[in-house]
Each structure stands twice: as C-alpha cells, then as structure tokens.
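Before surveying the methods themselves, let us examine one representative protein, written as a sequence plus integers encoding its fold.
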Amino acid sequence: MTRLTGREPDHWHTPGGGHAMRDPRRIDGYPPQSWTADERAYVEHLLAHWHALHDPQPEDDDPEAVKRVFELLAIHQDIVVLLRELITSLRHQARRNTDSGASP
C-alpha cells in the first residue's frame, strides 16, 4: 500500500488540502487499463488516504503523540471487549432470573 508522505504532486490537491483531480474510478466507461500513470498513482494515493482513515497502523517513525494515541486506542478496544462481555453476562443473568420467576 502506498504511504502518505506529504510530498505528493501539487496538482493532486487544492490549496485547502482537498483533492483536485477527478477520481478515474468514478468516470463511467473509463477502465483502469486506460488510466495514465499519474491517474494510477493518484488512485493509490486515494486508497492510502482511505486506509489511513479507516485502518491506521503504527509506523516506525511516528511522533510520540501518535504513539500515545495508538496506546489509547488499544486501551479503548480492550474496554469495548469488556463492555460487550458485560452485555452478554447481564443478558444471560436477566434471562436466568426471568426463567426462574425472579424479577430482572
């Protein structure tokens, strides 16, 4: 996967940081085999943005602040697992109480 470097071609971005080029994947009747090398590289860049947003992974040269955020994310994921286990346990207990005639 292509890594975002901050050194991508200027014509790929607007002055505000948005994407300036048209995504060739969104052009009807324009198959990938017809894309220019620049368009193929641009699509890889867009995919890198998507992966960076939806599935960020730690990198060796991450600043300390990013490393700390990944640590917090790991803690958060552990908490989510525990909360889901708690939901299951509470439901199980409530059903046992209901089945035995006790109030939940």
